[in-house]
Description:
This protein is an alpha/beta fold. It has twelve helices and eight strands.
Amino acid sequence: MKISKTFFAFLIVLTFVFFTSQMCSSQKEITTAIAASERHEYLRLIPESIIKDLPVNPAMTLVQNMRIGINIGNTLDATSGFDNPYWHSGENGWGNPSITREFIRALKNHGYTSIRLPVTWKDFMGPAPDYLVGACQRPGGCNNNPVCPPNRMDRVEQVVRWILEEDMYCVLNVHHDDWIYGASTNQAAVTDRFVKLWTQIATRFANVSQEKLIFESMNEIGFDDLWNQRSPGSGKNQAFDILNSLNQAFVNTVRATPGNANRFLLIAGYWTNIAHTCDPLFKMPTDTIRDRLIISVHYYDPSTFCIAEQRNNSWGFRDTWGTIVDYQDLVREYDRLRTTFLEKGIPVIMGEYGVTLINKVEEDRIRWMAAVKQISLNYGICPMLWDTGWRVNNGRNEGGDISRTAPFTMNTPLKTVWEIINNP
Length: 424
């Protein structure tokens, strides 16, 4: 999601505990399971599992095995490209600690089985015609950052391997690379750069865990200058055609790179919006191998509840969620995915979901997160929480130490959600 997510404090939600055996024991002793009646209240009107009614193929099985995931946001995706003097490229550019192996282990110990690793490449790409990924290319782009490694690809590979060595699934993507939006006016040039970037990524990770390292084509891409739902014009077909073409170029490029013949690929929906991605104009790419493509969507609905933080917000505001209509709206969106993709054997990853905690009724935040997580699992969809690490104690202290090796604490609402989902 765009930079406004840095103001989402839901975002987390983690900060995570390094459990010693004694800590685990005492934690279990003091943790009270959610009563069946209360659990039912949180999950009322969520359909039962439909997995047994869905087609079975390698991609469907993979996503179901991914279970529950989380993003490490505002870290490797930090960029100076938002014309804000306080933001810089580099891993610490948006105020987060560097990723450590201990942090990955903390996520795993907390129960996550999958990690989405958003990466922004543009400030580390050299000039045309090769667009070689290396050191930061933006003058001053890594100012005041403790970590700005000489080679971007080396650092990304290190983190990816940490995730895989913990036996977790990893989704690696192209995130805030906003040059892709330029395809609406210069499709050939953008496609050339896009192909050369993915050729480098696919080459670096050739033969690296084709069963657990998933490539995601891009993040939240659409072309509002051609068409948008608020002021629709005549360019809708063209807008969708461009995205479809880029997704096809992504698949072709990865498959043409040795060592990626069997890799699972995550295809970005139009703006990763469920309704737009289920539009007949959106087309899945063709592939040289069957059952290796997955669709990527995000969920922040209703936006007046999940995103809007101020009561005087111009496009609406809600501080509660959980009516019968709310549940019906949620199920309707998931049923779009069911009929458009799941029943056709195309699995879905919910690459991002979440709700701000600012000016919200906390119980309803819990209710929303529990409902989204449970319906995702019941539909064989892997939900991946969006976390930027903001407004939480994720290793920072007053002395400026931002090492993620520091002890982490888990916030109570997320713990409650885990209890609701994990207790039968």
